[in-house]
Amino acid sequence: MFHHYLITRFNLRNPKWDVTKNNETLLTDDWMEDRMWLFENFCFPSVTAQTCTNFTWLLFLDVTTKPIFKERIEALVKNIGNIKVFYIDGMPSFYPEIKKYISTHSASVSYLITSRIDNDDCIHKDFIGEVQKRFNSQEYQAVDVIKGYSLQIKPDFMLGKKEHIFNPFISLIERNADPRTVWQNDHNMWKKETRITQVKDRRLWMSIIHEKNKVNEFDGYDNVKWDDVRTDFILSPALDKEIAAKLLPHSQWWFLSLRNNLYVKSVLFSKVLKKTFGIYRIKESKFGTMTVHSGFAQWRKNIENRIANFSKEGEALGPAKRNAIKIFDIDGQKVNIKSFKIPAWFNAVVYRFFRKTKARRSYEYANILLENSIGTPQPIAFLEHFGWITLKDSYYVSEQLQADLLFRELTTNPDYPEREIILRQFIAFSYKLHEKGIEFIDNTSGNTLIKKDGPQAYSFYLVDLNRMNFHKSMPLEKRISNLAKLTTKQDILEIMSDEYAKLSGRNYPEILAMMHKYAHHFQDQFNRRRRLKKKLKFWKK
After folding, report:
1. Quick one: CA dihedral 430, 434, 440, 441, positive or negative?
2. What pLDDT, on a 0 to 100 scale, did the predictor assign at position 540?
3. Maximum CA pair distance of the chain?
4. Predicted model pTM
5. Which end of the chain is less packed: N or C, by CB atoms within 10 Å?
6. Please, which residues have CB within 8 angstroms of residue 377's CB and are 6 or more apart in sequence?
């Protein structure tokens, strides 16, 4: 189902990182000796003590690593089957080498999990297992473990709690189709990502604060005893014993603890607030923020170009009454780009801060349908363009599916070939949808595309997806009322009721009665709305 990789960069040359926080030169022999000591005593024992061993640890060191340090690394990992060591040409080679290894060794799996850990930190023995518990065949989902500990080791041992959002222990679950991995971004750049879940119920990491950290300072708080955590965070026996003997009592740093508590909580609150109100996304490109399906990452610039020229280019698909839909060509393939109507001011504010846009919902719901083996055109991308307080515009990009007919043709042409066969197969498709708890709110006759696959064989594809509900189960009345939106034609209602009764094991007259009731109810509602609109727009006559 998935492969899980824990990824660590060790001593890779990086022009953006050349001194410690104390302005000392990095990657010297002294620096490497100190880093090896941290790795051997904190990081390595905590990773090799994981209760879940279903992962591979990728360690990336620089090609300039001296033989004495290579020998120590090789001695550590000897006979440990799930650790792979690489010697590469600095940071420019890091990301390409990750992707190269994964593409070679994980081609057979559908999903990937990638996690990161720095070589001077350590993790709870259940860290890997807890991340894997969040796997649910997501198309793309970051996992951010918020809670951990901060351990200062010099000049005194001090241990405290800490909360850190978008931290260096983040993981990414994604479909294995041109995967991006967790190292596509620096950890603090995940603040701009919306597809992220937070783990708040356990403290699963420990940040080690030492003299050669690049930026970190000790900001732990509260009275945490080493005996309460030592069985969960496995260190070398020597360090475990030394910390137990030398940990500074909380009573000697209580004021710092209080100050750190206020600082950590205020920073966390600030970041959560900014994330909630989309402040991190204000600094975006000219045309907005775009998410592209991992299988179409190579089309990003092409899609941006098509959207930028949407008003001038493309083949219009019907009149643009509310939303505009156009067909474009990308690399010889037809794609469908839907530009959603710019909402009224109040709704634009709601979409900016409180509700997902129609473009985002369309993309996310399409992926959910495909994950449940429900037909819909392949989602490719969505773009949201926000101002300071409003949504400016949004676009949804999907495959242009060449259908043979719409469901509407079955309601308007009683002599359509194999009409009853198509209707019965459509009900089987709808029953499967309902059994999975999926309610397609806009289930109208123009929103189901139908393709002929062969003699008496048809497949069905839902479009206009931005309004859907997902239930644990759907009661019969909700199911029938959902189907009854399609038509008031008596013969179609009878065929649909008969087939649904057979599939559900329910009584045909009962289902037909419900079908009649809701079909005419929806028709009455539609007619009332129409009459009301005419009255409200009398001045246009």
Report:
1. positive
2. 47
3. 89
4. 0.59
5. C
6. 336, 366, 398, 399, 400, 401, 449, 461, 463
